[in-house]
Amino acid sequence: MDYTLHRVRAEDWPAYRAIRLAMIRDTPLAYLETIDDALGHPDSEWQFRTKRAEGPGNIGVAAVGPEGSWVGVMNGFLPAPDTAKLVGVWLHPDHRGPAGGAAALMLDEIVRWAREETAAERLVLLVHEENRRAIGFYRRSGFVATGHEEPYPLDESQRELEMVLPLRD
């Protein structure tokens, strides 16, 4: 399937809101907010999130399907000068799998951004210990577990695993 990439802009907040709600409904353990919390956000919160994606040290990319709708999203930010962080990753179930390529296309853009626009040395992420599909995708994409774990904020009896992709030799 043919996908195009779209860099998230401030005016994209309605589409971003729609995909974020779909993300949380589809995989609630993957995101650090509940559907009730997300539904309760005013428009100004969604506007803030998309405006932030355009700001320095941030990126949001959406995979756009042939019919023009957003089918996936990935975000990145720079928490430290040498480290970029991958967050808010999701792909609609109808577009998952290696044959489609939308996830790899988005990740390639995040990696390009991290290397070229931020000069980060590594790309890190946290993934819920039970999110096996995501862990598999990240491993196939070159990420390795660091051994660092953190409590999952919505249920501290569960863990988030840190993975890293080195960006420099």
Automatic annotation (TrEMBL):
<keyword id="KW-0012">Acyltransferase</keyword>
<keyword id="KW-0808">Transferase</keyword>
<protein>
    <submittedName>
        <fullName>N-acetyltransferase</fullName>
        <ecNumber>2.3.1.-</ecNumber>
    </submittedName>
</protein>
<dbReference type="Pfam" id="PF00583">
    <property type="entry name" value="Acetyltransf_1"/>
</dbReference>
<feature type="domain" description="N-acetyltransferase">
    <location>
        <begin position="3"/>
        <end position="168"/>
    </location>
</feature>
<dbReference type="InterPro" id="IPR016181">
    <property type="entry name" value="Acyl_CoA_acyltransferase"/>
</dbReference>
<dbReference type="InterPro" id="IPR000182">
    <property type="entry name" value="GNAT_dom"/>
</dbReference>
<dbReference type="GO" id="GO:0016746">
    <property type="term" value="F:acyltransferase activity"/>
</dbReference>
